[in-house]
């Protein structure tokens, strides 16, 4: 007898035609949605790169790392996402083995580099907030370039191994383009190197950054420090000029409670501008820590489902099954992180927001 799966053969032609039209409509809608995400990712990252290049104020080692992250996310949107649209919609690989190898290696390398960039940005922030004086001397463009080079070396070392066992199929026509998951050792190595180890590192770093930033924000700047190399002398007469002296002042040396210190009718006080700079610095630290926290949360939200499936599926093999649509959804959720990163930086980073607005206004005025 006929099985339930053969029922569509008895459907009227009109029903079959309607089903085909509906499927085609869904495929077109999905293509448009994914193309919009890809285009938005390209534009957002191009804007971040241009903003950094054209704004002298943003030419700092910390922003070079952010710029490098934007370039990496731009590579994801140009090299990986357009090909992925065609493959996601059709579920058939029609580009041959060579392009499959190039696409897969670009996917693994660029996505891993994007994730590892978040680690070096967090590491740079951690050193800057916990060892401010010493690290400010070492925080150079050369050091940022070295960190970026290490990120790409690790990313390439994670993407290269599959080539060693894929070469056998180099001359065959393939209908599917995916990493060979039969090598369990590689699956563990790649998922740990690209996601699990960086995530643990990010969580530890962010925890320490948060604690350090909070203690610095809550601790008010002292009015009289242990030692001021220069202190403004303001004499009683209105017309007298300001001068500087070397003074060794200790907290709590005033003669009466909270009254200011007087040495021969000369009032020594910490300049308001110094307190103002400290207040602005604390506000910046708070914002930078908040931005990093949002980046970290978005990163885990986008990539965790994909990497859980990437690790679990090859290990449990036939015992586990996920719908291909769910796998596609988690893959694109990961790609979406390359759009979220530049959006967060332009929305939550005040310096970027101001520079971005100036560029937009400049373009409007010049057009």
TrEMBL record:
GO terms for biological process: adenylate cyclase-activating adrenergic receptor signaling pathway; adenylate cyclase-inhibiting serotonin receptor signaling pathway; chemical synaptic transmission; intestine smooth muscle contraction; positive regulation of MAPK cascade; regulation of behavior; regulation of locomotion; vasoconstriction. Keywords: Cell membrane, Disulfide bond, G-protein coupled receptor, Glycoprotein, Membrane, Receptor, Transducer, Transmembrane, Transmembrane helix. Pfam families: 7tm_1. Residues 44-345 form the G-protein coupled receptors family 1 profile domain. One of its GO terms (molecular function) is Gi/o-coupled serotonin receptor activity. It is a multi-pass membrane protein. It comes from the Eukaryota. One of its GO terms (cellular component) is synapse. The chain crosses the membrane at residues 28-54, 66-90, 102-123, 144-164, 184-206, 292-313, 325-348. It is found in: Cell membrane. Belongs to the G-protein coupled receptor 1 family. This is 5-hydroxytryptamine receptor 1D. It comes from Serinus canaria (Island canary).
């Amino acid at each position: 007898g006929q099985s339930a799966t053969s029922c569509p053969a008895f459907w009227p032609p009109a029903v079959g035609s309607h089903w085909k039209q509906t499927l085609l409509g869904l495929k077109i809608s999905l293509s448009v949605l994914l193309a919009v995400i890809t285009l938005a990712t390209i534009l957002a990252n191009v804007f971040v790169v241009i903003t950094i290049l054209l704004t002298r104020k943003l030419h700092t080692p910390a922003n070079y790392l952010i710029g490098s992250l934007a370039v990496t996310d731009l590579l994801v949107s140009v090299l990986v996402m357009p090909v992925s649209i065609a493959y996601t919609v059709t579920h058939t690989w029609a580009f041959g083995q060579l392009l499959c190898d190039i696409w897969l290696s670009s996917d693994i390398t660029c996505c891993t580099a994007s994730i590892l960039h978040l680690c070096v940005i967090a590491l740079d922030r951690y050193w800057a907030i916990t060892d401010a004086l010493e690290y400010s001397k070492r925080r150079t463009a050369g050091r940022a370039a070295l960190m970026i080079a290490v990120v790409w070396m690790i990313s390439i070392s994670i993407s290269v191994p599959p080539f060693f066992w894929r070469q056998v199929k180099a001359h065959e026509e393939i209908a599917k383009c995916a990493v060979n998951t039969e090598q369990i050792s590689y699956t563990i190595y790649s998922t740990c190197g690209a996601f699990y180890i960086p995530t643990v590192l990010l969580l530890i770093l962010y925890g320490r950054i948060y604690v350090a930033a909070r203690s610095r924000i809550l601790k008010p700047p002292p009015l009289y420090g242990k030692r001021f190399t220069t202190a403004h002398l303001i004499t009683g007469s209105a017309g007298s000029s300001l001068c500087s002296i070397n003074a060794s002042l200790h907290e709590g040396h005033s003669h009466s409670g909270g009254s200011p210190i007087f040495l021969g009718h000369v009032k020594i006080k910490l300049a308001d501008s110094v307190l103002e700079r400290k207040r602005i610095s604390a506000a910046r630290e708070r914002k930078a820590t908040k931005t990093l926290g949002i980046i970290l949360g978005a990163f885990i939200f986008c990539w965790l489902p994909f990497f859980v499936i990437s690790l679990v599926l090859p290990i449990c093999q036939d015992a586990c099954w996920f719908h291909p649509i769910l796998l596609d959804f988690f893959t694109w959720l990961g790609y979406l992180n390359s759009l979220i990163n530049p959006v967060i930086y332009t929305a939550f980073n005040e310096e970027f927001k101001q520079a971005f607005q100036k560029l937009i206004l400049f373009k409007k005025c010049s057009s």
